[in-house]
Amino acid sequence: MKFVMVVPDGMADLPVDALGGRTPLMAARTPTMEMLSQAGEVGRVLTVPEGMYPGSDVANMALMGYNPQVNYSGRGPLEAAAIGVPMEPRDVVFRCSLVSTDGERMADYSAGGISTKDAQILIALIEEKLSSPAIHFFPGVGYRHVMRWSGGPVETRCMPPHEMVNEPLRAHYPQGEGEERLRRLIEDSYELLDPHPINRQRRDEGKPPANMTWYWGQGRVPPLKPFTMRWGLTGAVVAAVDLIKGLGKIIGLETPDVPGATGYVETDYRSKGQTTLQLLEKHDFVYTHIEAPDEAGHHGDLEAKIFAIEQIDQHILAPVVEGLRARREPFRLMVVPDHATPLALRTHASGPVPYLCYDSRLSRRNDLPYDESILSETGCPFVDEGFRLIGRLLEKEQ
């Protein structure tokens, strides 16, 4: 028996006037999702506990089966685990984002989709000039990097940069323990990066400069029980972003690099589908995460979000289903976004999201659609603790 969980990050949305009151998921051409939902189960799940920020770190921890109210400690250490950053118990790791700014306001939280190659050059400069015996910087993917602070603060209030686009920087500076050091790092990074040749070239090409580092999502590495010990299954993660790969590594899942996977809308969807199928040849469970719908939501790009959803359906879901059927392999497959990233808000939103669960062994008929309209349906299943959803997929209690 094979098990697959496909997570289109931020896919859930609100009705859009330009779509006649439909959501991007409703408007997208998704024949595979429709086929799976008609022969499967659709329901609602609250991936993020009430009172917690609806971030991908909390939500994906829950979808992997771990209670974030008990296990969550911060985003930074999860991303650090993905890139092999050594961490001691007293180390605090921050997400270090490369962002675009005019020195006064947050212009772009992703530095205009800067390439990993250029970003690594900039982070190497930050490490050379701003590191200390206690603080070091490590390059990740695209605009996403980490900073490790030995003995650093955990409770400092830090604003995610995607929550403050077009807003004044100083109104959202870190507050609390360690705030002076963090603010100095932010301002010193601007002095270093703004005149850098890479950013002069980006401006000449009409691209936003990657001219500041921003710190948030701090925490210590969480002690999570290995996935295989919990479920008696082997598994793997297909993802481009370090957050998801880091979660996978911490719980002992295989986390290969996926050719062409970028974490942006222009990722290689076909490669993710092929990698998922390949990993299912040797593992019982594969967790396939796609960042693209979330990126489109943060940028308020309707066409990009619909495109991403359609690519997931065509190049990930369809070949995985067809490939498993061709092998005559019984399987259970779930599709569930980790949270909503509405185009109108350009940030994450709290509340339930729709899921579908398909079992190749069963023949059933479901008349409910797989989209956000089921969130108001009282007759469909509702999982109010997101970390229990994986049990429905694996047919195991927890």
Walk me through what this model shows.
It is a single chain. By secondary structure, the protein is an alpha/beta fold. The protein has 2 domains: 2-72 and 223-394, Alkaline Phosphatase, subunit A; 81-219, no CATH class. Helix content is 33%, strand content 18%. It is built from 14 helices and 12 strands. It has helices at 24-27, 31-38, 56-63, 68-71, 76-82, 116-130, 179-193, 197-204, 227-231, 242-250, 269-279, 292-298, 302-326, 389-394; strands at residues 2-8, 41-45, 91-101, 106-108, 135-141, 144-150, 212-219, 235-238, 285-290, 331-335, 353-359, 382-383. The strands form 2 sheets. It has a 7-stranded mixed β-sheet with strand order 8-9-1-10-11-2-12, sandwiched between helices. Strands 3, 4, 5, 6 and 7 form a 5-stranded antiparallel β-sheet that branches. Strand 3 (91-101) and strand 4 (106-108) form a beta hairpin. Helix 5 crosses helix 10, helix 6 (116-130) packs across helix 7 and helix 12 packs antiparallel against helix 13 (302-326). The mean pLDDT is 96.
